[in-house]
Amino acid sequence: MSYIRQAKLQPDSLEVLASVSWSKAVLAVLSQHKHSFSDHVCLRLIRQTITRKILDKLPRVIQEQLFQQGCSVVRREIWSAVRDFRTPNMWVPFMYVFYQPEMKELEMPALIRSQDRLTVLDLLYNLGTPHGHQANTLKIKIFETPNISIEESYVLKRVLRGFRQLKSLILWKVCDDAMLQILGVTCHHLDNIDIWKSANATDTGIRMFLGLDAERPFRVCSSLTKVAIKDTSVTDLGAFNLMIHCDNLHTLQFSQDTFLQQLLHRISQNYALTKTVFQLRSLFLQVNKPSSLLHVVRSLPRLEEVTVWTSLSQAEDLTAEDLKSLTCLKLAGLEHASFLTDMVICVGSQLTKLCIETVQFDVDVSLIGSHCSSLEKLSIINARVTVGRQNQEEQAKFYKLRMIYLYLVQYLPVINMTNKSITTGLHYLLSESPGLVSVQAPGSFLFTDNCITSLLAQHKLASLNRFVISQPVSIDHRTVPLTEESVRGLHRGCPGLVLLGDLKHWHISPATRRRIIKKYSNCHFSVPVALGEF
User: Fold this and answer.
1) End-to-end alpha-carbon separation of the chain, Å?
2) What is the pLDDT of residue 311?
3) For a tag on the chain, would you pick the N or C end, based on fewer CB atoms within 10 A?
4) CB distance 166 to 136 below 8 Å
5) Taking a C-beta distance cutoff of 8 angstroms, is the pair 372, 349 a contact?
């Protein structure tokens, strides 16, 4: 009972209620046919009857809406491997009865029983012969492990040949080199692919997927924009082949602890020799040589989001032109404040999102405010926050800042400030950000009711809809010296406020907290936001 959230209840539309009722009625019928079957006679009969009497009379758009709504209802059904192992997962008969090859999207959830997986794959193969499926999006998550039977692997390959219109594919855990080749030959419009945890996918499979050894490369080389190869056997060579040959590839996701350094070295060496540039828009940079940083950045002129982990003291020779598309910057593991200074001076004016994490120096928020005039989101994690001395003409203002997220942050006392009422870095951020919507931060013993009152008097918090002040980062486990007075003031001064907390860390007794909750009867309680929301 430490969070107050405004209750906003929006009833479902009549259309949604009708589709849910339809799905439940259908599931009630299908539940009577959850038996071990071999020829699926009963399901075929149900499929023919429903198709002839109902679905054929509905537009295809409505048919697909009913199918997708039914899938979401089925996925909420609890299936027990112990209790229900001898009967099919309810999704299987539902899929068997209602799926049509004209549908544009299909997601197959995890199925524990091999019989269920084979039933679904056989159905897809039969319906896709000879004209194929029209799906643009396919998500295959039915396999729990990469070790599938020979029969399942064979049927899955036949199924993939029938999805010729795919633009988005998720094929988790079981993708191998042969499947990659099939996809490269079959899918001429593939825009993104995710083969997470497919240990049997290798660099050879990437070559086969792209058609590098064919008479001419496959069409995926020009259509692909996003590839995810996390936890696979693809190395930096395969990743580099994707970057070299996929002209429009802007997102490449891979496990950073596997071949990051080797890939960065390849990119740096390639730029030093050929000046080749790539289209990637995001990258994790762990570099400790000025030349490597410069070469990698200049080979990726369209970077929009970058994470830099480095021990460099300066960003030597780096210019705003090198990072002209950058809007999101994350700096982590830095050892020198001068590198942060160089980066915000270089690209601060174009940033909309800045995250600083686990640095070995004090973070001067006034420096950030002076150079990051377009900043909308600021996150500082595991660091000390201070406010530096400023000249009047360099007065920082976070005019566009809408979200502040501070975690494991300590505030150093503010000195040499023209405004003597500013007590902490948090108070400073709140006072200089007129458009704030969301704040989550640890408190301080210097952040009091008077601070809240002065901010409200100046209308600094008028736009807030989320205000969470948690326990101060201190060894003596102090509470934040905010009382019921601040609760009342925030509710009066912030008309859009929907979440307020964490009251258990404020100077409010449990009995008073309960009384506050009872007083604001239109509120209920919520849980804290998850770490890393930024």
Assistant:
1) 25
2) 92
3) N
4) yes
5) yes
CA distances in angstroms from 197 to 34, 232, 238, 242, 275, listed in the order given? 32, 5, 16, 18, 34
For residue 111, give both structure tokens: 């199925």
Q: Tens of pLDDT along 38-80?
A: 567 788 888 888 888 888 888 888 889 889 988 988 877 766 6
- Dist CA 492 CA 510 (whole Å): 22
Q: Residue 166: its pLDDT value, please?
A: 97
Task: Determine the pLDDT at residue 398.
Answer: 92
pTM: 0.87
Strand partners, 469: 441
Q: Is the N-terminal amide bond of 191 cis, ω within 30° of 0? A: no
Contacts with 447 (C-beta within 8 Å, 6 or more apart), sequence order: 423, 424, 426, 427, 469, 480, 481, 482
pLDDT value at position 43?
Answer: 80
- Cα(436)–Cα(431) distance, rounded to whole angstroms? 10
Q: Which of these, 303, 379, 387, 289, lies nearest to 346 by C-alpha position?
A: 303
CA distance 358 to 467: 24
359/310 Cα distance (integer angstroms): 10
Q: Are 430 and 380 in contact (CB under 8 A)?
A: no
Residue 177: how many other CB atoms lie within 10 Å: 19
**What whole-number distance in Å separates Cα of residue 368 and Cα of residue 394?**
11
The whole-angstrom separation of Cα 327 and Cα 347 is: 8
Which domains are assigned to the chain? Answer: 104-254 (3.80.10.10)
Confidence at 11, pLDDT banded by 50, 70, 90: low
Q: What is the 3-state secondary structure (H, E, C) of 195-214?
A: CCCCCCCCHHHHHHHHCCCC
